[in-house]
Specification:
InterPro entries: Helicase_ATP-bd, P-loop_NTPase, SNF2-like_sf, SNF2_N, SNF2_RAD54_helicase_repair. By secondary structure, this protein is α/β, with parallel strands linked by helices. It is 53% helix and 10% strand. Helix 8 packs across helix 9.
Length: 239
């Protein structure tokens, strides 16, 4: 997840108690949030929010989007869910609302600064922007700049400054025929870039969710039991 760390508490947590406290905060401050996601996971977001919280939410998509937009402007909802495409179609309407934060799923979709989807996302008025992605960098360093410049505008300078200060020396150091000087410079610049971005990231690492993962011993025991069962069945049939 990327965005300003101080706004991390605005992201719903997977805990009933935590959700309740955040819900009370939303009601108290009259907050309203926008969640943008691909259509393929739009209703997954709705289902999870309904499972873990008591939010007044709506889906801005499909035949009812105009009706729901009217109710949204009337302050009937606390969370609005929409897709990238619907956001493009309804940008003016959605910009008429003072959003407390916008959360964007699969934010790597705005990796191209010239793409229409990127232009629309940058035109959405909201000071607090939070992006979720597992692949912030797919092909080149400029993609990283584009996503970060949406989340925290200007945090890495403009595109030209980013290329000169970070992208070019890092890519030079990654070439198979890089000189020792280029390699050392590339590593140093990468360390500086990592340090600069560290306050803007919240990473969901294996260490954070280790308690939710099955233990290796448990899996081993399971397969051992399966193998013993198969062996017993084979022996029984052989008789």
């Amino acid at each position: 997840m990327l965005g300003a760390v101080e706004y991390a508490d605005l992201v719903p947590a997977c805990s009933g108690t935590a959700i309740t406290h955040k819900y009370q905060l939303i009601v108290l401050l009259n907050m309203v949030f926008l969640i943008v996601s691909p259509l393929s996971v739009l209703f997954n977001w709705r289902d999870e929010l309904e499972t873990w919280g008591y939010f007044k939410l709506t889906v801005i998509h499909g035949n009812r989007k105009d009706f729901e937009l009217v109710r949204l402007k009337q302050g009937k909802y606390e969370i609005a869910l929409t897709t990238y495409e619907t956001l493009r179609l309804c940008l003016d309407d959605l910009n008429s609302i003072e959003w407390s934060a916008v959360i964007v799923d699969e934010v790597h979709k705005i990796k191209n600064p010239k793409a229409r989807v990127t232009e629309v996302m940058k035109a959405l008025r909201c000071n607090i922007r939070i992006g979720l992605t597992g692949t912030i960098l797919q092909n080149n360093m400029e993609e990283l700049w584009c996503v970060m410049d949406w989340a925290v505008p200007g945090c890495l300078g403009d595109k030209k400054q980013f290329i000169e200060k970070y992208s070019h020396p890092i890519e030079l150091g990654q070439r198979h025929n890089a000189t020792k000087r280029e390699l050392a410079t590339g590593r140093k610049v990468m360390q500086n870039l990592t340090a600069k971005m560290s306050s803007l990231f919240l990473r969901r690492t294996k260490a954070l969710i280790s308690s939710q993962l099955p233990k290796k011993d448990d899996r081993h025991d399971m397969w051992e039991k399966v193998e013993k069962f198969q062996g017993a069945e084979y022996f029984h049939k052989a008789l």
